[in-house]
Amino acid sequence: MTETPVIRLEGISKFFGSVRANHDISLELNRGRVVALLGENGAGKSTLMSILAGQLQPDQGVIYHHGEPVIFTSTEQAIVAGIGMVYQHFKLVEAMTVAENVYLGQSPTAWLKSREMTRVVNELAESYGMQVRPEALISDLSMGEKQQVEILKLLLRQSSILIFDEPTAVLTPHEAYNLFATMRRMRAAGKAIVFISHKLEEVMAIADDIAILKRGEVIDIMPADRVGSTAELAERMVGREVLLQVERQSVEPRQLVLTVENLQDDFLHDIDLEVRQGEILGLIGVAGNGQKPLVQTICGLRRPRSGTITLLGLEWERFFSRHRWDKSLSYIPEERQGLATCRGLDLLENFLLTTRSGFTVGPWLPRGEAGLKAQRLVEEFDIRPPDLNNLAWQLSGGNLQKLVLAREFHRKPRLIVAEQPTQGLDIAAAEDVWNLLLKAREQAGILLVTGDLNEALALSDRLAVMFGGRILATFAGGDRDMVERIPQMMAGLTQEEMT
Amino acid sequence: MALIRIVKRQEPLGWGSCFVLIAAVALSVLLGGAILAIGGTPPVHGIVTLFQGAFGSRWALEDALIKATPIFLCSLGVAVAFRLQVWNIGAEGQYAMGAVGATWIALSFPGAPAWLLLPGMIAAAMAAGGCWGFIPGFLRQRLRTNEIIATLMMNYIAILFLDYLVYGVWKDPASFGFPMTPVFSDQAIIGRIGATSFSWGLTHCLLLGVAVWAFMRFTRLGYEIKVGGDNVRAARYAGIPYDRLVMLVMALSGALAGWAGFLEASSTINRLQPSIMAGYGYTAIVVAWLARLNPLAIGVAAFLLAGLRVGVEGLQLDLQVPAAFGGMIEGLILLTVLAGGLFTRYRFAFKRRLP
């Protein structure tokens, strides 16, 4: 280990107003090693990587590139220095082909040599074990394939430092497996890799070094082979024992709160399901198999074309024509920023989004009482920073999710539709969400839509598997035979094919 | 490589944005001077004449205040629509329809007492202007038409409809062929406050300004408009009937412009004639942006741009500058203010040398 680190961060600090996002962070990236950045939401991982990628400038501290101090005042400079980032949200032109996207902005001449581009992209993809076709249109690709295009862009630039910001959040298990294979090849090719994730198993599987961030500081940094188990890592990360298995007392299921009968449209085929008060129905499947249209239809954002939906005893049309703010339906969407909150509004106004009817007096909407209530919830749910005047876009994804949950549980719902409720949350926050859902189950029926098998198994009283717009099977959570078959069903194999 | 870099601001710019605004207006005046110079008018003299003509005398200030009245109300209307991110460019037409509606009542019931006639005229003006706003709102939500184009086109319909009336069925037989209606009866005219030259219309502005401010800030609908303007999908998620909200806001927006049309007909001109169309509805758009949709600031901006109109009249007389110059300055102000938004949302970082 006498080689100079490719990148050395020394004493990096960054403030946003009075909020300390990064404090005195030092970190080394070396050729052929994967560093995992692990930390709670808002711990400062994204800020640190934005500094490295030249998007933000540190208030204090120095970045050394091959031992030389550098200042990146723009992303271009960071790119020239060989730093490339794979963002969570892809930056691709949907109407163009893979090869065109890969070459976007780095075509050597004014003329595009399409055959040449195809050949180079193909070779590049193959040498790193990727299977994406250079001629394919981006809009036809799966999330995993789009991610491969992002990676190819960086590889074509010959980036030597690659940063992956929660790369597996949007991937199926199989795609994640392929991504790791690609990352291993990159490591073998001498690239320095930063891997940001919440998933401990993944960190253990791929990382050489693990750095744990907490409240803007690196509290722990160690080689991965010195960590015994994921449980140990989890404990170091949250600083307390985490029960990955939540306590679940059974509740007697009562009246029906949701029935879907024979729902059909372009994306859904013959959907039948029932949710009773006091139970959690876990709807599991790989993303993109009809969960989104189903949820949107149940939650009133899409009109059912044929079939009937009954919510809390009322037919769909009637239910959504008489909007009730409390003891009704709470929808916790996967999209916290685009759907569940308004980015330009402050926290109080975002709190009022679905609870406003509870504070309305005649035509007026007085803010005083709502402000007190919201302030109490902000403290109870530990939303940081705890200032109602902050705008939603100033919050990290995890804190925004806490705000949505605080708001939705405040409505004392009778039916909850929770879509990937813990995606992007750290373990402690996820555990809190699970406990909240289990507690809410006493009063409500819950439809839990998730791609995370562990989450579904930990919480659900009954499970349903969705594939290709159909529900392949519905069974009790304790049915071991069926539970074992879930992975095959998620891949689309029906029972007949399995036997 | 560039030495200056543009960085997004983390903290909103407080009072600095005021400075940006002033700088933007100053720049447009400077550019206006350049235009004067190109036209052969001595620029410094021209600008000084403009300002003296606008704010240099008691008469000019009074005239500016009178002209500010319709601009203020129209601007209040478009500001409400802009809050919802619905681009109502049709204040001009809604104002015309308001004037037509008020005139219809005034001519139909000339003998009615003022306490009945004036509210009737207001109601008719609001209904007519509101309709003219509602239609493009309805078309936008039901047929997905573009409201910018629809409102703009409807301006022409309204203005030509007004012309049709004053050239035709409503023309005063005693007007020697001029296109104008008869003078309203005394009961249909809003009088002046005491011995001043200001009409009671100013109090309407004050009340409506406060009402719109309170509406946007304290009512549930005002909150829903803010949500809808920020994120349409979140609005639907929250159970806000967005389609109905757009139609309502467009009707409200049109009703306020219609009220402006009523005031202008009743209090300033005392009849309906084509000269009532002075482009106030378009100035209102500039005013709304200049004021960042804030009702109090709209009052100030309306007064300033009304002053500009008065000043340009003086410039026409003294230096034979064409009337279009006023429109050019107005356009310049809008452009520089919009461009100035760059400085309020971003800051400029100077590149440091590597240590």
From TrEMBL, chain A:
Q: Where in the cell is it found?
A: Cell membrane
Q: Which SMART domains match?
A: AAA
Q: Name one GO cellular component term.
A: plasma membrane
**Keywords, ordered alphabetically:** ATP-binding, Cell membrane, Membrane, Nucleotide-binding, Repeat, Sugar transport, Translocase, Transport
TM ranges are none
**Which CDD domains does the record cross-reference, listed alphabetically?**
ABC_Carb_Monos_I (cd03216), ABC_Carb_Monos_II (cd03215)
Q: InterPro entries this protein is in? A: AAA+_ATPase, ABC_carbohydrate_import_ATPase, ABC_transporter-like_ATP-bd, ABC_transporter-like_CS, P-loop_NTPase
Report what the protein is called: Nucleoside ABC transporter ATP-binding protein
Annotated source species? Desulfofustis glycolicus DSM 9705
Automatic annotation (TrEMBL), chain B:
Q: Which organism is it from?
A: Desulfofustis glycolicus DSM 9705
Check the record and name the InterPro entries matching this protein: ABC_transp_permease (IPR001851)
Where is the chain membrane-spanning? Answer: 12-38, 121-139, 148-170, 190-216, 245-262, 274-291, 296-312, 324-343
What membrane topology does this protein have? Multi-pass membrane protein
**Superkingdom per UniProt:** Bacteria
Any one GO CC term of this protein is: plasma membrane
- Give the main location: membrane
Compartments where found:
Cell membrane
What GO molecular function annotations does the UniProt record carry, in alphabetical order?
A: transmembrane transporter activity
Keywords, A to Z, come to:
Cell membrane, Membrane, Transmembrane, Transmembrane helix
The name this protein carries in UniProt is Nucleoside ABC transporter membrane protein
